[in-house]
Amino acid sequence: MTRDQILEFIKANPTSFMGTVDSGKPRVRAMHTALVEPAGLTFCTGVDKDVHRQLAANPSVELAYWDRKAGVQVRVRGNVEHLDDLDLKKRIVEEVFTFLKPVVDQFGYEALSLFRLAKGTSVVWRAEDQGMAPLEVAEF
Q1: Which of 32, 57, 96, 131 has the fewest beta carbons closer than 10 A?
Q2: Alpha-carbon span 9 to 77, nearest angstrom
Q3: Domain span including residue 54
C-alpha cells in the first residue's frame, strides 16, 4: 500500500491499538485517530493521562489498525511529535471529539495534548494470504 492508501484505510478504520512504553514495559490501549491527513496521524489525549506521560517520555509508538470485514491489518510505527497548536485543538473539539467540550469549558484547552505521527514505517498483513505471503513493508 502507498502512503495515500494507508491514510484512506485509516480514515475508514480510525481506531487503533497504540503501543507505548512505560518504565521499560509495553502498554497498549485503543486510541481513536483524531485527524488523518497528509501531514500524518494526529491524536488527542488529556495532559493528565498515562498515554500523554508515556509519549512525552518516549515518543516511539506502534499503531495497529484492523478491518475485520476485509481481513486487513495495517501497523504504523515511528516517533510522534508533541504539537502545541491551539487552533488544531479547537478544530478537533469542534469537529471530531465534541464530547470534550465540557472538559474544555471546565479546564481550558491546555488540558488537552496533541501528538502526531508524521512519518515512519508501515506493515500490511492480509488474512487472505493466511500468513504465507511476505508482509508489505513500506515507508509511511
Answers
A1: 131
A2: 15
A3: 3-139
Please enumerate in sequence order all residues whose Cβ is within 8 A of that of 99, keeping only pairs 6 or more positions apart, or say none.
none
Residue pair 71/133 in contact (Cβ under 8 Å)? The answer is no
CA-to-CA separations, 70 to 62, 127, 134, in angstroms, rounded: 21, 8, 18
C-alpha cell at 81: 511529535
- CA proximity to 104, closest of 118, 117, 86, 121: 86
φ, ψ for residue 28 (rounded to 5)?
Answer: -130, 140
Calpha distance 120→45 (Å, rounded): 21
What is the structure's pLDDT at 139? 87
Of the candidates 53, 42, 40, 38, the one whose C-alpha atom is nearest the C-alpha of residue 97 is 42
Per-10-residue mean pLDDT of the chain, 140 residues long, equals: 95 98 95 97 97 97 97 96 97 96 97 98 89 79
**How does pLDDT run across 81-112, given as a tens digit for each residue?**
999 999 999 999 999 999 999 999 999 999 99
Q: 97: domain CATH number?
A: 2.30.110.10
